[in-house]
């Protein structure tokens, strides 16, 4: 995670960002701190990277790396405003002992568009990540990649429209939640085939960034407004944990965007 010390909405690269509206680094920092402490309270290890001045979106650490079984695939941003972030994260991995690090050739916004189910890497395209980056990820990480097409600009990254509730080494047992309307008809059919028991989100769940949740298989960290989705998850045995991310949402981000999940083993 990266503390949002230099958070701002200075440019607009997604429909949520409005540089004419006020955004506060102080409030973002308070909300981020609660999110970080929530993970710690739930028993997870959180490591931090230093933020850099002039990179207001660096708080969205999920966009800077995909790590599966200790292998790191770095990122390459579409927007010039974010390009420099990738190198800071690459250095962080080097300094923290990671040796299998590949920087992509194709535009690749990492966990913004990649979600690991335990056997498959679900991969979004349409707004940010280049479809050719899906094949590149498959080759670098050595895991099967399923390409999914996003069609609604508000849900420009896969992690704004879908998240993994529980990983499993048997594809049929992994569980996901997603908002069908954010996907093309073909991609919806792929998701129905692979995940017939998925939790389906509605427009209200998606609009508050409810699909930008982070689950450890039991606890599901969600924006405080995602009450409808939370109720459905509770019925399935999950424990929703609410956080306020209203300031971060002004940049088009939520809990998951702030969180890169490092899978060492
Ligand atoms: N302002 C950032 C952008 O548009 C937000 C990124 C949110 N991150 C995410 N994983 N969806 O790139």
Q: How much helix, percentage-wise, in residues? A: 25-40%
Number of helices: 7
Q: What's the order of the H and E elements?
A: HEEHEEEHEEEHEHEEHEH
Terminal CA distance reads 20 Å
> Which whole number gives the mean pLDDT?
97
Tell me the structural class. alpha/beta
Q: Which spans of ≥5 residues are poorly predicted at pLDDT below 50? A: none
Compounds present? arginine
Q: How are the strands ordered across the major sheet? A: 1-2-3
Radius of gyration: 17 Å
Sheet with most strands: 3 strands, mixed
Provide structural commentary.
This protein is α/β, with parallel strands linked by helices and 265 residues long. The protein is 25% helix and 17% strand. The protein contains 7 helices and 12 strands. It has helices at residues 25-41, 85-95, 131-141, 185-194, 203-207, 227-235, 246-249, and strands at 66-68, 71-73, 101-102, 114-116, 121-125, 145-149, 162-166, 175-178, 199-200, 214-215, 219-223, 239-243. The chain starts with 24 loop residues before the first helix and ends in a 16-residue tail after the last helix. 46% of the residues are buried. The mean pLDDT is 97.
């Amino acid at each position: 995670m990266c503390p949002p010390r230099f958070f701002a909405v200075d440019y607009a690269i997604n429909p949520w960002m409005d540089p004419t509206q006020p955004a506060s680094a102080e409030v973002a920092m308070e909300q981020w701190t609660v999110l970080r402490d929530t993970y710690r309270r739930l028993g997870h290890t959180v490591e931090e990277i230093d933020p850099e001045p002039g990179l207001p979106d660096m708080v969205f650490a999920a966009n800077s790396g995909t790590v599966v079984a200790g292998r790191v695939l770095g990122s390459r941003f579409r927007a010039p405003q974010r390009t420099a972030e990738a190198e800071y994260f690459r250095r962080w991995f080097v300094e923290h002992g990671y040796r299998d690090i590949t920087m992509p050739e194709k535009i690749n916004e990492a966990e913004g568009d990649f979600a690991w189910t335990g056997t498959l890497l679900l991969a979004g395209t349409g707004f940010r990540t280049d479809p050719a980056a899906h094949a590149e990820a498959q080759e670098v990480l050595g895991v099967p990649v399923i390409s999914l097409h996003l069609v609604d600009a508000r849900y420009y990254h896969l992690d704004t429209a879908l998240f993994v509730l529980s990983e499993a080494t048997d594809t049929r047992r992994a569980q996901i939640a997603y908002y069908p309307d954010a996907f093309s008809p073909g991609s919806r059919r792929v998701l129905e085939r692979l995940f017939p028991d998925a939790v389906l989100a509605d427009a209200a769940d998606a609009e508050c960034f409810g699909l930008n949740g982070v689950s450890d298989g039991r606890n599901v960290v969600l924006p405080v407004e995602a009450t409808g989705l939370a109720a459905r998850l509770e019925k399935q045995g999950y424990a929703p944990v609410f956080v306020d991310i209203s300031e971060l949402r002004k940049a088009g981000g939520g809990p998951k965007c702030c969180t890169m999940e490092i899978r060492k083993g």
